[in-house]
């Protein structure tokens, strides 16, 4: 099972911290899974110009092909101006419309206050649905107060991250079984 974590910002530390914690949790709890962390801070992406995702080079091609080859994609996004960052939107623009078809997608949002809890609902979920992703029903919302010195200090948040990971893996296994049964039922 290929799991990709996407830290969707080039500034700040909360989303990056969260995705690193999730990477460690997955590696410890599911050692059989192949886990890749795509941290946009560490990568140089080209702006989308409408080309096929395979026509890009360097980090841009690495990001797009990694996402396209994944079974599970866990996206971490900060809240900027009551929306998602442009860097994350650019990643979506680099991919084809059906990029998340037959993939399970989970969401983690970080924000300065509880006032932005609907950003995932209003901005990210519609994009994931449009790109044919199978969303884990509950996302994790993490506020400024849940962090201290580059770590998550709220045990409830850590439990919700564990549940998001578990739900994504369970959904992926279930979907794969159903899709395999459906494929086997065809006569051709």
Automatic annotation (TrEMBL):
<dbReference type="InterPro" id="IPR005025">
    <property type="entry name" value="FMN_Rdtase-like_dom"/>
</dbReference>
<keyword id="KW-0285">Flavoprotein</keyword>
<keyword id="KW-0288">FMN</keyword>
<dbReference type="InterPro" id="IPR029039">
    <property type="entry name" value="Flavoprotein-like_sf"/>
</dbReference>
<dbReference type="InterPro" id="IPR051814">
    <property type="entry name" value="NAD(P)H-dep_FMN_reductase"/>
</dbReference>
<protein>
    <submittedName>
        <fullName>FMN reductase</fullName>
    </submittedName>
</protein>
<feature type="domain" description="NADPH-dependent FMN reductase-like">
    <location>
        <begin position="1"/>
        <end position="143"/>
    </location>
</feature>
<dbReference type="GO" id="GO:0016491">
    <property type="term" value="F:oxidoreductase activity"/>
</dbReference>
<keyword id="KW-0560">Oxidoreductase</keyword>
<dbReference type="Pfam" id="PF03358">
    <property type="entry name" value="FMN_red"/>
</dbReference>
């Amino acid at each position: 099972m290929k799991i990709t974590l996407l830290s969707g910002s080039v500034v700040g530390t909360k989303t990056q911290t969260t995705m690193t914690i999730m990477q460690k949790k997955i590696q410890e709890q599911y050692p059989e899974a192949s886990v890749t962390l795509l941290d946009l801070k560490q990568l140089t992406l080209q702006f989308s110009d409408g080309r096929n995702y395979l026509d890009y080079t360097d980090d841009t091609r690495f990001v797009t092909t990694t996402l396209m080859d994944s079974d599970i994609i866990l996206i971490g996004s900060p809240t900027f101006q009551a929306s998602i960052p442009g860097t994350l939107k650019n990643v979506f623009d680099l991919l084809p419309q059906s990029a998340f078809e037959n993939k399970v997608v989970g969401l983690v949002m970080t924000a300065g206050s509880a006032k932005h809890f609907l950003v995932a609902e209003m901005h990210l979920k519609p994009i994931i649905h449009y790109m044919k992703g199978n969303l884990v029903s509950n996302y994790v919302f993490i506020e400024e107060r849940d962090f201290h010195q580059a770590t998550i200090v709220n045990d409830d948040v850590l439990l919700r991250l564990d549940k998001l990971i578990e739900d994504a893996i369970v959904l992926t296994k279930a979907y794969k079984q159903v899709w395999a049964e459906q494929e086997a039922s065809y006569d051709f």
